[in-house]
Every structure is written in structure tokens, then in C-alpha cells.
């Protein structure tokens, strides 16, 4: 007991010293904060443009005030068949502080931001009446995930699953070939780049007859989500929806 007490005291002392030398800071703007209960400062939180009651169920886009809830909009009119899922939920538009959050999570390794995004998306999905049985994520290629050290979509999905009390299975899908990052390509080249890039993963059988939620960080043209959903359909889930941090 004395040893445990000494270890606890040493750890608490070390954390206290670190909080003085390296005070908590915002994972988005870098500003100093008074506490470390959140990875985002109050100023940044106030600038997030999150979706309200006006949105497109097909692509998740936030719409102008009083537009309401519609099944198709100008943002997805080029993709008249949808994105392979019944509906897409997005926390907000890929702009401003939400864009900064996505980039800080993805390239800055600020994994605490996945917790913030997961809380928003979990509430959004449940509020829209979807109760998934299983959550998964759009997989990265082996090379890219090894270089980055994590899959940002998987980090969000794992936290969402914990909040919902549902299982998370990242191995429903796998990339069977490496692809050029979609962000580096013009819009017209993205569908061709990602075509046939996925296959069913080792645990695809788990999706059979279940309601599956596919999570990704960003939906732009929708080519990646469309291809992932098309592949996962082969596992015969009973329903599929998607949740993305930003549209």
C-alpha cells in the first residue's frame, strides 16, 4: 500500500509540474486553456458551424435557414443514385473550424478531437432515428495507415460505438490496392481512382442482416463512400447509413 501510495503521489506530482511547464492548449488553434477537460477551447467551439434542422438526408449537407429536411439538394444532384447508403449524417460543412478539426486530427495526430467529433455524430445519428447494430469505418490502405499510425475515421467510429454501446468492427472492409489520396485529385478523377479499391474484409460476415453505420472523416464528391458501401452490400446488411465529420 505504501508503494502504491508513493507511485500515485509521484504521478500526481509529475502531472502537476507538467501542467505548469506545459499548460493545456487547444488542439485546433494552440491557445492556452485553464483546464484540460476538452481538447478544444471555448473560442473555437463558438466558431463551429454545425448542422441544424435544415439538411439533406441523401448527402448530409447543411442547408440554408428554413429549407427544412430534404432528400436531395444542389450539393449532390450530380450523384442522383445517392452514395450507396440510405442516408448520410454530417456534423457540418468542411469549412472554418470544422475543417481545422479534421486536418488537426488527420495530420496533426490530435486524437482527442476524435472524441469531440464522435459526440456530435452520435447524437446526430440517434436524433435522426437510426439505431445501428454495428459500426465500421472506411479503411485506409496498409501503407498510408502504417505511415500515419492510425485511421482517423476508425478513431471516430470506435468512440461512437462506445457511446452507443454497440460493437465496432473495422475489418468489414479492406483496401485491396493503394490509391492516390482523393484530396490530391480533381473531382472528375476521383471516381475512377477509387473504383474497385475495396473488398470484403475478414469479419464481413458479421454485417449480415444487421444495421450498419459506416463512418468517415469527410465526404466531398462521395466517390469513396459510394464504393465502400457498394462493396459492403455484398455482405447483405439489413440497412446501411453513413456518418461523416464534415461534408
Features:
two-stranded parallel ribbon, 8 strands, four-stranded parallel β-sheet, 247 residues
Kindly summarize this structure in a few lines:
The chain is built from 8 helices and 8 strands. The protein has helices at 2-21, 42-45, 96-106, 112-127, 142-148, 152-164, 187-194, 223-232, and strands at residues 55-56, 69-70, 88-92, 134-137, 173-175, 198-200, 211-218, 239-246.
Protein architecture, described:
By secondary structure, this protein is α/β, with parallel strands linked by helices. Helices cover 36% and strands 14% of the residues. The protein contains eight helices and eight strands, in the order ααβββααβααβαββαβ. It has helices at 2-21, 42-45, 96-106, 112-127, 142-148, 152-164, 187-194, 223-232; strands spanning 55-56, 69-70, 88-92, 134-137, 173-175, 198-200, 211-218, 239-246. The strands form three sheets. The chain has a four-stranded parallel β-sheet. Strands 1-2 form a two-stranded parallel sheet. It is globular and about 50 Å long. Mean pLDDT is 91; it is low at 12-20.
Amino acid at each position: 500500500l505504501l508503494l502504491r501510495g508513493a507511485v500515485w503521489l509521484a504521478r500526481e506530482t509529475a502531472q502537476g509540474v507538467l501542467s505548469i511547464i506545459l499548460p493545456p492548449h487547444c488542439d485546433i488553434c494552440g491557445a492556452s486553456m485553464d483546464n484540460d477537460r476538452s481538447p478544444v477551447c471555448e473560442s473555437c467551439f463558438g466558431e463551429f458551424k454545425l448542422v441544424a434542422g435544415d439538411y439533406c438526408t441523401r448527402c448530409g449537407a447543411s442547408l440554408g435557414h428554413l429549407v427544412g429536411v430534404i432528400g436531395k439538394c444542389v450539393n449532390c444532384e450530380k450523384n442522383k443514385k445517392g452514395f450507396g447508403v440510405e442516408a448520410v449524417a454530417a456534423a457540418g460543412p468542411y469549412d472554418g473550424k470544422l475543417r481545422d478539426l479534421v486536418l488537426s486530427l488527420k495530420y496533426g495526430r490530435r486524437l482527442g478531437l476524435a472524441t469531440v467529433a464522435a459526440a456530435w455524430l452520435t447524437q446526430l445519428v440517434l436524433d435522426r432515428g437510426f439505431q445501428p447494430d454495428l459500426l465500421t469505418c472506411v479503411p485506409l490502405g496498409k501503407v498510408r495507415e502504417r505511415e500515419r499510425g492510425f485511421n482517423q475515421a476508425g478513431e471516430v467510429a470506435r468512440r461512437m460505438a462506445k457511446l452507443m454501446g454497440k460493437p465496432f468492427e473495422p475489418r468489414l472492409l479492406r483496401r485491396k490496392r493503394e490509391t492516390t489520396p482523393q484530396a490530391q485529385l480533381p473531382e472528375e478523377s476521383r471516381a475512377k481512382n477509387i473504383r474497385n479499391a475495396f473488398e470484403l474484409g475478414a469479419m464481413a460476415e458479421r454485417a449480415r442482416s444487421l444495421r450498419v453505420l459506416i463512418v468517415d472523416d469527410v465526404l466531398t464528391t462521395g466517390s469513396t463512400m459510394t464504393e465502400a458501401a457498394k462493396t459492403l452490400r455484398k455482405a447483405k446488411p439489413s440497412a446501411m447509413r453513413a456518418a461523416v465529420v464534415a461534408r
